[in-house]
Amino acid sequence: MQYKTKTIMRTLNNPFVTNGYFGQKYFCDREKETTELIQKITNGNNLALISTRRMGKTGLIEHCFEQPELKNSYITFFVDIYATSNLKEFVYLLGKIIFDKLKPQGNKIIEQFFLLISSLRPALKLDNTTGEPIFDIGLGEIKEPAITLEQIFKFLENADKPCIVAIDEFQQIARYPEKNTEALLRTYIQHCKNSRFIFAGSQSHMMEAIFFSAARPFYQSVHYIPLKAIELNKYTSFVENHFREGNKEISTELIEKIYALFDGHTWYMQTIFNTLFAHLNYNERVTSKLTEDAIEHIINNFEPIFQVTLNLISERQKELLFAIAKMGKTKAITSSQFVQKNGLVSAASVQTSAKQLIDKQIITQENKTYTVYDRFFGLWLAREYGGGYKLDL
Q1: For residues 179 and 348, what is the distance between their CA atoms, to the nearest angstrom?
Q2: How far apart are CA 97 and CA 79, in angstroms?
Q3: How far is CA 150 from CA 172, 184, 197, 211, in A?
């Protein structure tokens, strides 16, 4: 199986990317993590990449895939399983991602794909307009997902070049009704000689349980790379340079305040700076007032989504969520002081609601500190139900 890639370098009107990877110019730092990831993979290791959502896991993986050490020597696949709910959907998505990436290489590769993955052969159809092969199969047509999965791994093992498969939001497999999913995947993966795997996840407690619990199949099977916030000085230089190149101005102090407001979470900062850059004319300077207006504009745009989220949770969960959002960050949520101060029912009720909100990824707990998972949602909640918020910009 021969595979070639072609990189299309783009020049963007707005350098603060909020979706996708557009090359080194628009990618900030991560030099240490890039070096470590490439070194581990090229030396035959599988990896677990763990961080909160929107910290930049996907961007880091795509950035590494574009580096010569991987791009020239490996076939790379990226599959996001966040929306999957069972093994059948996982198998379908993995098969489709592989097919779509190999499709430009021509019919010979596609024939080999369906030869080795015979259980997916009904999915090979021709587009009525273009005559090109397309992947078209209903989930119900995957009768034996375990067999199809085994065939997919066989296909990867027969590739002419080594493969790297990155699976994002890997913790989803722990929610599948098929309780043997972890054992099944571990069995196939441990026999892979031609493929390496990157398991990325955003729910640290679930990822750690999968990989660090001695009772689980993936125990001690990976090298662990935690992804923290980009260092303040490096991100500050990144922002300043792009504003300068765009003939626009922003102060170091304001960048640092935005960084502190979002604890260095990449996507939230990128969204703010993307908005500020778009609304600034040449030779104009970002002000605190413009920044506050930008944040308010973003929050208002997301308001319908936030309202739907509230409608999907119980009254007790809302009460706890409002209390956490009002404080921004808080510890000891089951303490009598916290319960009484916020008019909550009981410590036991708080504990139950907290677990449910964490499972729904509405709040998060890190280092015994609770906060609203989506930082924009947290600001909206504070504005609507917590008496407002002060940005201190």
Answers
A1: 29
A2: 7
A3: 20, 9, 16, 22
pLDDT at position 8 is: 45
Side chain identity, residue 159: A
The yes/no answer on whether domain 312-393 falls in CATH 3.30.200.100 is no
Comparing CA positions, the residue from 85, 41, 98 lying closest to residue 65 is 41
Provide the CATH number for the domain formed by 24-226 in this structure.
3.40.50.300
Point out which residues pair with 125 in neighbouring strands.
134
The torsion defined by the Cα of 208, 211, 213 and 219, in degrees rounded to 10, comes to -170
Helix, strand or coil, per DSSP, at residue 208:
helix
What is the Cα–Cα distance from 288 to 66, expressed in whole angstroms? 37
For the chain, which residues make up each domain, given as ranges? 24-226, 312-393
Greatest Cα pair distance in the chain: 69
This model's pTM is above 0.85: yes
* Cα–Cα dist 41/39, whole Å: 6
pLDDT one-digit tens code per residue, 315-363: 999 999 999 999 999 999 999 999 999 999 999 999 999 999 998 989 9
Q: List all residues 6 or more positions away from 200 whose beta carbon is below 8 Å from its beta carbon.
A: 48, 49, 50, 57, 58, 61, 166, 167, 168, 169, 170
Are the CB atoms for 286 and 248 separated by under 8 Å? yes
Q: Which of 183, 175, 174, 172 is nearest to 146 (CA)?
A: 183
Residues in the chain: 393
